């Protein structure tokens, strides 16, 4: 995997937005997999600025969710469908009909999970999947010890993840216990994985994912199995990487035309 160390979250957002803009110019109807949470917001803001300035036209882009809470009422502002509509689909001028996501309020959740995996395949697969990382090493909501071959399914959130996400709700009690998440096997089918991590709170998880062994106990370590995975980290999130200087030197020597 390629590890790119940037000064701060804004620089990481711009770098990844540039890669997305290049993808959209190459493939105007690219299927873009989007993560929610705080980390990717600078990416969406930077890309929205490029759309607003006319530098890129994202109107034909298709978007798909990485995960969704189970049990939140339709239209709840913190459902990931609402978040992706608000933070990605509307600012980028994407057609709402081109937006795929799992149905977290389905009566038959296992059937909804299978249907979502099938919908992703029918759409031709994800061109670029944006990922964040949990403090416990999760990607999507594949919590520690998720199978590295897992498909989209229902998962139970760890207490740590519910506490981390409580800031989006009025209290910890309101954070759902269950989610539908793309499985690790599903995520690995995307053609390019781009993980952004910022802040010292992610440093340990990043070091384990990048420099530790591939292990289900650190779900993000599965990126090591992907032929095109990029990990973009700010200085704080890179602070526990033993190979940080090597990663800096490698990226500095990379020809600019190669992109991410
Ligand atoms: C969200 C998701 C999660 C988050 C992770 C980090 O769709 O899949 O894996 O990316 O929990 O969240 P933040 O960015 O809020 O620290």
UniProtKB/TrEMBL annotation:
CDD domains: GlcN6P_deaminase. GO terms for molecular function: glucosamine-6-phosphate deaminase activity; identical protein binding. This is Glucosamine-6-phosphate deaminase. InterPro entries: Glc/Gal-6P_isomerase, Glucosamine6P_isomerase, Glucosamine6P_isomerase_CS, NagB/RpiA_transferase-like. The gene is nagB. Residues 13-225 form the Glucosamine/galactosamine-6-phosphate isomerase domain. GO terms for biological process: carbohydrate metabolic process; glucosamine catabolic process; N-acetylglucosamine catabolic process; N-acetylneuraminate catabolic process. It catalyses: alpha-D-glucosamine 6-phosphate + H2O = beta-D-fructose 6-phosphate + NH4(+). The lineage of its organism: Bacteria, Bacillati, Actinomycetota, Actinomycetes, Kitasatosporales. Keywords: Allosteric enzyme, Carbohydrate metabolism, Hydrolase.
